[in-house]
From TrEMBL:
SMART domains: BTB (SM00225). PROSITE patterns: BTB. It comes from the Eukaryota. It holds the Pfam family BTB. Coiled coil: none annotated. Residues 22-85 form the BTB domain. This is BTB domain-containing protein.
């Protein structure tokens, strides 16, 4: 099981992340846009913080919003952003989505996802379904 797109067929906008006061657009590999806030991403992710701090050194010539293209698909980006904003977090019943989120948390240096998923693996039955893979995850992350 992987993350499913949360957009309507043919849509290119995330239904949950279209904040009118957004100052950053994240565009996923499947061309879905997420209108989010630089400040929130900077607090949640050290990689985004460092990347966005470059805007302060070289401010854009226009007042248009910045667009950041990412290699993740929209379902995974939606799940990731739910850890940043006060929205319901994804329900994770299989190990594969947990692995994908841990990889994103590692790539973008997002401690809140790592800590949340560690707790999830400790208190739920997900880890018991595949103890070998769970051990390998613990060693990797």
């Amino acid at each position: 099981m992987s993350f499913e797109s949360t957009t309507a067929p043919g849509s290119t906008k995330s239904p949950h992340f279209q904040f009118p006061d957004a100052d950053l657009i994240i565009r996923t590999s499947d061309k879905v846009t997420f209108h989010v806030h630089k400040t929130i991403l900077s607090f949640a992710s050290r990689v985004f913080r460092d990347m966005l701090s470059l805007d302060n050194i070289n401010p854009p010539f226009t007042s248009e919003q910045r667009v950041v293209d990412v290699s993740e698909e929209s379902g995974l980006m939606d799940a990731t952003l739910r850890y940043f904003y006060p929205l319901s977090r994804p329900i994770l019943k299989d190990l594969l989505p947990i692995i994908l989120l841990l990889e994103v948390a590692d790539k973008y240096d997002i401690p809140v996802i790592t800590f949340s998923l560690e707790d999830l693996l400790l208190v739920t039955e997900v880890a018991k379904s595949s103890p070998g893979r769970t051990y390998a995850l613990a060693r990797k992350f």
